[in-house]
Each structure stands twice: as structure tokens, then as C-alpha cells.
Design brief:
Radius of gyration: 21 Å
Strand content: 35-45%
Low-confidence stretches: none
Shape: elongated
Structural class: alpha+beta
Mean pLDDT: 95
Length: about 200
């Protein structure tokens, strides 16, 4: 799947997400926010100007988003920008339930935000014996390498494979290679490695 496929999944299939900011007390704060639109520039959502959430968005200009449906999830962290009333009419057209929540000119209380530069991942455990993990990028966000990686000191003992829940380690080569798109990040391989050559990154 492409980045666009993941954004379409997030907006059109999952839709309702958990969005995190930092509250006035300095601790993480979450709320459920619908992702309304997506395009090549990012993902769009809105909120009312009178809410504490709006103030946090304007001050922090950064969010974390997490959403899940039917054992598939999308997580993103990145920069946001307020685009005012741009795309507001399109949002109401594509999400008609908003016309009931904010009828008539009451929609003037709302402003639209765009998540325009973010990184994250798609994670699918709908087939428990074959999980799927893929990276997602929006805009100019940098790829953050994360997971477990085998170093050159690997002796090919295959102990890592023996404890891997997904059996996602290619033991036909030395050093062995972990399939990052199937890894659960459980760390069992690193714990058992006699040479301690399996490194956790990210």
C-alpha cells in the first residue's frame, strides 16, 4: 500500500481517531477527533475556536494521532497548521453529519487544521500469524528507523529465530536479517542473542 492508501484508510474507513496534545498541566491529553479529508498535502480535521483543544493546537502546532478498526491501526506524529475556513465547506459536504451538529451559520465557530508533515506506521494484526507493519510519511517528514537490527557479530546460531513469535527472521544468511514489516518489536531476539549483537533502534 502507498502513503495515499493509508491516509484514505484513516479518513474514509477508520475516521474517528484519538488525538494527543499536551494539557495545561503539562501532561498528555487525548480526545476523539474525526479525520475529515485527505489529499496530497495531508490530513484535515477541525475544532471550535472556544475549546481548550484549539488553544493547544495553536500553541503547540504538533499532535499525535492513533486510530484502530478491525485489528488494523494507523499512528502518526507530526506538525499541524491552521488553515482557517479553507476546506470547511468541502468538509461539511463530505461529512453531512456535521451539518446537524453545527447547523446554518454556527459553523463559523470552527476552523480547519491540516496535519502536513508527519511520520508513523500502519500495523495490521488481522491475520495473527502474519502481522504487517509499514511506515507512513506525510510531507517532508524524516523516516525514523525503529525496531531490532542484527549486527555483523552474528554467529548464525539461530537462537533468535527459535524465540521469535512471528518467525520473521531470515536465518539463511549471516548475519541473519529481521523482516521489519513483520516484527512485533517484542525484543526476545535481543534478549537471547549470545553475542548481544541485536540492536534496538528508535
Amino acid at each position: 500500500m502507498t502513503n495515499s492508501d493509508y491516509l484514505k484508510l484513516l479518513v474514509e474507513d477508520i475516521h474517528s481517531t484519538t488525538v494527543a496534545t499536551i494539557g495545561a498541566d503539562g501532561h498528555p491529553q487525548t480526545r476523539t477527533i474525526d479525520m475529515m479529508l485527505w489529499d496530497e498535502k495531508g490530513v484535515y480535521f477541525l475544532t471550535a475556536k472556544g475549546k481548550a483543544f484549539y488553544t493547544q493546537l495553536m500553541e503547540q502546532k504538533y499532535i499525535a494521532v492513533s486510530a484502530t478498526k478491525e485489528k488494523r491501526s494507523v499512528s502518526l506524529r507530526g506538525k499541524i497548521q491552521n488553515i482557517g475556513r479553507e476546506k470547511l465547506d468541502e468538509i461539511f459536504e463530505k461529512n453531512p453529519y456535521m451539518q446537524i451538529i453545527y447547523p446554518g451559520d454556527t459553523r463559523s465557530a470552527l476552523e480547519v487544521f491540516r496535519l502536513y508533515e508527519a511520520s508513523g506506521e500502519y500495523f495490521d494484526i488481522s491475520d495473527p500469524s502474519h502481522v504487517v507493519r509499514e511506515g507512513i510519511l506525510i510531507g517532508q517528514a524524516q523516516v525514523m528507523e525503529s525496531g531490532y537490527f542484527v549486527g555483523n557479530d552474528c554467529i548464525g546460531c539461530k537462537l533468535c529465530y527459535s524465540v521469535c513469535p512471528q518467525k520473521c527472521i531470515d536465518i539463511s544468511t549471516k548475519p541473519v536479517v529481521i523482516d521489519q514489516n513483520r516484527c512485533l518489536h517484542c525484543g526476545r531476539c535481543a534478549e537471547i542473542c549470545p553475542k548481544q549483537t541485536i540492536e534496538k533502534r528508535g
